[in-house]
Amino acid sequence: MTPPSKIEDSSSSSSSSADSSTFVTGNSWYTKVSDIKPGVDRLIDAFHTKQKTQDVQFRLNQLRNLYYAVQDNTDELCEALEKDFHRANTETKNLEIVGGLAELVHTMSSLHEWLKPEKVTDLPITLKTNPIYIERIPLGVVLIISPFNYPFFLSFSAIVGAIAGGNAVVLKQSELAPNFSSLFSKILTNALDPDIFFSVDGGIPEITELLEQK
Hints:
The protein has 214 residues and is mainly alpha-helical. 50% of the residues lie in helices and 8% in strands. It has a single domain, classed as Aldehyde Dehydrogenase, Chain A, domain 1, CATH 3.40.605. The protein has helices spanning 33-49, 56-72, 74-85, 89-114, 151-164, 178-191, 204-211; strands at residues 118-119, 133-134, 141-145, 168-172, 197-200.
């Protein structure tokens, strides 16, 4: 796996290490319910007005930021999951992080090829007079709700695919892994452009409010 070249992006701080030295307790790390609608609205408005994700190079830059944000904070992410699940750091690194980063690198190297218009050849005779193509167009703002059991890979893989497809992401992680979820939210928020990413942390009230925004 050849990692992407590292570039400096003034809109993010993906190279800084996060702090996982303390245990997360209670619900002080939850997103305020009153902040959820404005956060989602911000992404929807930016998607339609700024259209940053229409640019494939912008998507690649965001994925590159994501790669180095995780690489620079691998130890902290492993330690957070050790606190939540008493899972060995080597298990988290080998089963979740290594595979997730490999998927990201593969996505970056394949993205231009995947986005090429695909000519449709199996057509009725009445439609054969003009060429018809399938073009991959971003959907908009997508919601990713990740489970607690493999919280890194099952959220990271979905985020990579959504950004590669030109979408903005609202992420809701499990409150059952508080040390990991709170840390990963901070890492992602620092790494990604605020016009394409918003993280919501919390339990039933927060996810209920979030689902009202669809």
